Amino acid sequence: MPLSPPVLDRLRTLFPGDALLTAPADCAPYGRDDSKREALPDAVVLPTTHAQVLDLVRLCREHRLPLFARGRGTGTTGAAVPLGGGLVVGFERMNKILAIDADNRVAVVEPGVLNGDLQAAVAAHGFFWPPDPASAATCTVGGNIACNAGGPRAVKHGATRDNVLAVRAVAGSGEDFRFGKATSKAATGYDLARLMVGSEGTLALVTEATLKLVPLASARATLRATYVDIETAAAAVARIMAQPVTPCALEFMDDEALRLARLHGGEAIPVAGALLLIEVDGEADALPAAAEALAHAARGAGLIDLAIASDPRDVEAIWAARKALSPSLRSIAPKKINEDVVVPVSRLPALVAGLKAISARHGIPIVNFGHAGNGNVHVNLLYHPDDPAQAAQAPACLSAVFDLVLSLDGTLSGEHGIGLAKRPFMRRALDPVAIELMRRIKTQFDPDGILNPGKLLPD
Amino acid sequence: MPLSPPVLDRLRTLFPGDALLTAPADCAPYGRDDSKREALPDAVVLPTTHAQVLDLVRLCREHRLPLFARGRGTGTTGAAVPLGGGLVVGFERMNKILAIDADNRVAVVEPGVLNGDLQAAVAAHGFFWPPDPASAATCTVGGNIACNAGGPRAVKHGATRDNVLAVRAVAGSGEDFRFGKATSKAATGYDLARLMVGSEGTLALVTEATLKLVPLASARATLRATYVDIETAAAAVARIMAQPVTPCALEFMDDEALRLARLHGGEAIPVAGALLLIEVDGEADALPAAAEALAHAARGAGLIDLAIASDPRDVEAIWAARKALSPSLRSIAPKKINEDVVVPVSRLPALVAGLKAISARHGIPIVNFGHAGNGNVHVNLLYHPDDPAQAAQAPACLSAVFDLVLSLDGTLSGEHGIGLAKRPFMRRALDPVAIELMRRIKTQFDPDGILNPGKLLPD
Fold this sequence. Notes:
Uridine Diphospho-n-acetylenolpyruvylglucosamine Reductase, domain 2; Uridine Diphospho-n-acetylenolpyruvylglucosamine Reductase, domain 3
């Protein structure tokens, strides 16, 4: 059902000139995300002010028009895809950094600021914002908030939810509100700011966020440890996390991931059952002791080799394996299903063993790497959609992956969110009463269900 | 309106023997908290199982009986006081530590576990749970969750909300649910666990919590810095928080607090415009560099003296000023209103200056100390309730304190919560739409308003 002329008139008034897109060719790019799903919205609006967003939501509510918030479409779950049509609100023009307040360790931003632009701006003041997804250069802070984005630094500094102090937002009801202050502590009512984080645009549209900044360390050391198998690597992860020097990254790759990275990146990338990348940051004087504490924890049964680097070129070499991985994944199969499941750290060996069994059973290669310190594993199912046997197996294989994760007391997503991709598994993953409470919360913020319908919560 | 005989019969069946108290003399101790408010409940029940709590909430909902959750009554806001009568559910018998899982850095506990008992148990595994309120020896984890308790360690490790991963709970609707996993990352639906933290028993009764543990550091150094005034001390706080070595405590006392501590604790306690206590923990080898980084940041205009201690007796001497304070407060005035306001760190000087003006205007001494790194100040109004002039001024004085805090973009509470004490100020502090959204959320969890009625949210 296309937009009625009166609605289009209102939209034109609200979003003059090129702030309103209606031609399908203009709208189509706003209908896709990195899940490779797509749908054509009826129109796209590109607000520059909070007031426009408020008017937009009220208009959409009045006409029961579905409204889909969008950063830059780097999400991997389809959360920003306007399934069924409606309006996309793209936040790319609300991209101002409103304040960087070093004394209070906060930045105030509009939602369309790119994560990478924010990092560059606050680095000039000696700070960073902890969320550092691989897409940092092209993803927005608003999108990070929507899906509770993480990245390697989350092991020390938490994910997005741990680093948002306050929001300004417009609920689906057409009411706007502020919640939170530029303070790192508060016990004044239900925490509506944290409730927004991870809600994927289903409750409210965030138009401003106050972010917690962390001082940049002056030095960094990187360790690369290889192990005979994932069991001994996971035991090392547990030892590392049980001692007081928290690493600022604790990444892992399984044997298959290493094999592929080596194919692509060359023989400097080691052969092993598993690899850990361990980084620690701090004051230069304190770093040798900190690195040694981590090295001590990394040593143990199953260790093949341990290398410590602080020279930037040596660090680059250590990260080479991880960076060689993404292109190599693309080279072996045209289709990749990348899920970011989480399990308790101690269940990592059972997860990887179970994934190997699932891979063999379904004839679909599975490659695993990710944020070991959080138990957050990127499980990559690699297959040829043109191979009928593999294509037919893929859904059952994915379903088996989630069953495995849930049997290990894990959860569907650590940092990508649910969107469309994992919505069919929400009933398996969550307590039915918890889902029902979420649905009731949704109804209070968005009584007519106009915000991102068909996402996150199951039918 | 006393409990009807059929309800009493049901309660007796549910809570046999001494698990049900009905005699006023038995019930009275369960009607008080550390706000010095009190009310007599109609009965007190002391469950030992989740199933009992579930049956209890259903019974209360059926009969529209108000139900007040209680840990050990150490709260300072009246949040646990059964105003208007009804049932108190005391969690003191649900005090089991269900699991300490070192590999996954979590503990699973019942809500009645004392914070101090938990700390002792997890310390044996090399861990601590960050919330460390002054009442740790006698307060419960359930109470910590209810009010988002903090303490000195919050400056490095966050308050309770940052350290609860999962809950089991019974909503006021009589539905029980679990939410969250023993993982430090999750992006699977709205975060109901964090929503429970700080909700003061108004949404659900938490019957089990999965807590995030942190490894104990092997060494600690303590610095004491004195400054000519609060402005220069606050500037030092900003410098300390802007460099990468995060202290594990950053406490301050104003001039009046120091003067009183010295009266009680002796002349070893320095005379100064403000004092900072700065602690840093870590590996022994790394500690001198870390302490020097903090000392460097502490130095600057206005510094009178800086002392660094690592010997436990010297550390004790440094903390003596802070510890001498509480008894001295009691000695100068029988009545103390202790508010735990928060402002952005850079506003601390304006806060303290404003508090001095308010104190002079109302003729009520105000003494300030607290968690400077979080901008979280314990503002103590000291007065004689028998002095009619002071007693008459106290409410206006308190009101002026909150007006000041809000004018500095701060908030009512950092770690005590709202309860009864700060409820009259909620409309001043929060956006009306945010309050309305909280009220709607409350209605979804507790449709008949049986859980802790008259608390937290304004009328």
